[in-house]
Amino acid sequence: MLENLKVGILGGGQLGAMIMRQAIDLGLRVSIMDKDAHAPCSHYTADFFCGDPASFEAVMEFGKDLDVITIEKEAVNINALRQLEKQGVKIFPAPDTIEVIQDKFTQKQFLLSHHIPVVPGEAIQGKNDLYRYENKLPVCLKKRRDGYDGYGVMVLKTKEDMAAAFDAPCVVEELVDIKHEISVIVARNEHGAVACYDPVMMVFSEEKFILDYQIAPAQIGEEMSEKATALARKIADALKLVGILAVEMFVTKDNRLLVNELAPRPHNSGHHTIEASITSQYEQLLRAVLGLPLGAPGLRFPSLMMNILESATLSTDKPGKLKRLLDIPGAHLHWYGKEGSRPGRKIGHVTVTDNTIENVIAKAESIRKILN
Ligand code: ADP
């Protein structure tokens, strides 16, 4: 029924590859564009175009014969998407939605204008503006654009930290006393139907701001879970979202719920939905952007997802370690097939499911021991 639709995805990393698998189930063929000729998706399809999604010309060339375009990364050329939309290509999420989220400060302003609680923060042009915060340390400094996996985030505690700060347009935020970090994935289609996943709880390693592991459902109590999903739905409606959105939030030590940031695409915090949910976030994205009924988002079993990062220790016996990992009952390995070996880079993930959250957490310890 859908095989004549020409669907394009901007970005060809692991998220794109996971969308591709669901596209196969729906009988779709997708074209993918990434600036890296060896990006994960390049191995799986002949419809792979090497070009920078941030380039106007490249996006125009890629999109001109497509019916629908969606994204798996935010760094895309908005002007080209607007132009393609005028030519009749459907762009979901809408260019306006992507644009407001691309910049952490405009994102914050948008949320505030809709009375959504966010972490208080101000915009600065560069390092020279930081002197204003000398008496307000510690603060959290974030690049307005193109940050990911914590690479655009630093905590400033001292004047020396300020001297080593990013020199780029940034947001300076209050340092939040975080009790839990959670994420809610929400999908919305053109007809305004909304499907919201249960919150997942994230645990980050302290020094690098990179995800250590994530459990679903989040252990935050029913009331807080309901508050979080209600907030995610409100944001999806405010954005008039068509597609999928991850809403990262903080539960503060004094039990307030604050939105940290949005991602208008499938998200790391939704990897577990492949095995653990009735409808995966990847299938849900395709349903949402193709105007199909949304799938049920319910969780089938408790689950845990752990990113696998490139490291010297892992490299000592990668095949042996991955085999031991696959020996854990209910462990599902996702290997991204990335080239290069930058330490800290996400090169795969493992999802574990079980009947109880306690069993799942016990398995996380075994996995961590194998990978470290
Ligand atoms: P990225 O876009 O790189 O994922 P985030 O905004 O999600 O960046 O920040 C990365 C991590 O930094 C968060 O998951 C959280 O642990 C920490 N962090 C971010 N903002 C704050 C803040 N205002 N106060 C305290 N910690 C923060």
TrEMBL record:
<feature type="binding site">
    <location>
        <begin position="173"/>
        <end position="176"/>
    </location>
    <ligand>
        <name>ATP</name>
    </ligand>
</feature>
<keyword id="KW-0547">Nucleotide-binding</keyword>
<comment type="pathway">
    <text>Purine metabolism; IMP biosynthesis via de novo pathway; 5-amino-1-(5-phospho-D-ribosyl)imidazole-4-carboxylate from 5-amino-1-(5-phospho-D-ribosyl)imidazole (N5-CAIR route): step 1/2.</text>
</comment>
<feature type="binding site">
    <location>
        <position position="181"/>
    </location>
    <ligand>
        <name>ATP</name>
    </ligand>
</feature>
<feature type="domain" description="ATP-grasp">
    <location>
        <begin position="108"/>
        <end position="290"/>
    </location>
</feature>
<dbReference type="InterPro" id="IPR011761">
    <property type="entry name" value="ATP-grasp"/>
</dbReference>
<comment type="similarity">
    <text>Belongs to the PurK/PurT family.</text>
</comment>
<dbReference type="GO" id="GO:0034028">
    <property type="term" value="F:5-(carboxyamino)imidazole ribonucleotide synthase activity"/>
</dbReference>
<feature type="binding site">
    <location>
        <position position="142"/>
    </location>
    <ligand>
        <name>ATP</name>
    </ligand>
</feature>
<dbReference type="InterPro" id="IPR016185">
    <property type="entry name" value="PreATP-grasp_dom_sf"/>
</dbReference>
<comment type="function">
    <text>Catalyzes the ATP-dependent conversion of 5-aminoimidazole ribonucleotide (AIR) and HCO(3)- to N5-carboxyaminoimidazole ribonucleotide (N5-CAIR).</text>
</comment>
<dbReference type="InterPro" id="IPR005875">
    <property type="entry name" value="PurK"/>
</dbReference>
<dbReference type="InterPro" id="IPR011054">
    <property type="entry name" value="Rudment_hybrid_motif"/>
</dbReference>
<feature type="binding site">
    <location>
        <begin position="260"/>
        <end position="261"/>
    </location>
    <ligand>
        <name>ATP</name>
    </ligand>
</feature>
<dbReference type="InterPro" id="IPR013815">
    <property type="entry name" value="ATP_grasp_subdomain_1"/>
</dbReference>
<dbReference type="Pfam" id="PF22660">
    <property type="entry name" value="RS_preATP-grasp-like"/>
</dbReference>
<feature type="binding site">
    <location>
        <position position="104"/>
    </location>
    <ligand>
        <name>ATP</name>
    </ligand>
</feature>
<dbReference type="InterPro" id="IPR040686">
    <property type="entry name" value="PurK_C"/>
</dbReference>
<dbReference type="InterPro" id="IPR003135">
    <property type="entry name" value="ATP-grasp_carboxylate-amine"/>
</dbReference>
<protein>
    <recommendedName>
        <fullName>N5-carboxyaminoimidazole ribonucleotide synthase</fullName>
        <ecNumber>6.3.4.18</ecNumber>
    </recommendedName>
</protein>
<keyword id="KW-0658">Purine biosynthesis</keyword>
<dbReference type="Pfam" id="PF17769">
    <property type="entry name" value="PurK_C"/>
</dbReference>
<comment type="subunit">
    <text>Homodimer.</text>
</comment>
<comment type="function">
    <text>Catalyzes the ATP-dependent conversion of 5-aminoimidazole ribonucleotide (AIR) and HCO(3)(-) to N5-carboxyaminoimidazole ribonucleotide (N5-CAIR).</text>
</comment>
<keyword id="KW-0067">ATP-binding</keyword>
<keyword id="KW-0436">Ligase</keyword>
<dbReference type="InterPro" id="IPR054350">
    <property type="entry name" value="PurT/PurK_preATP-grasp"/>
</dbReference>
<dbReference type="Pfam" id="PF02222">
    <property type="entry name" value="ATP-grasp"/>
</dbReference>
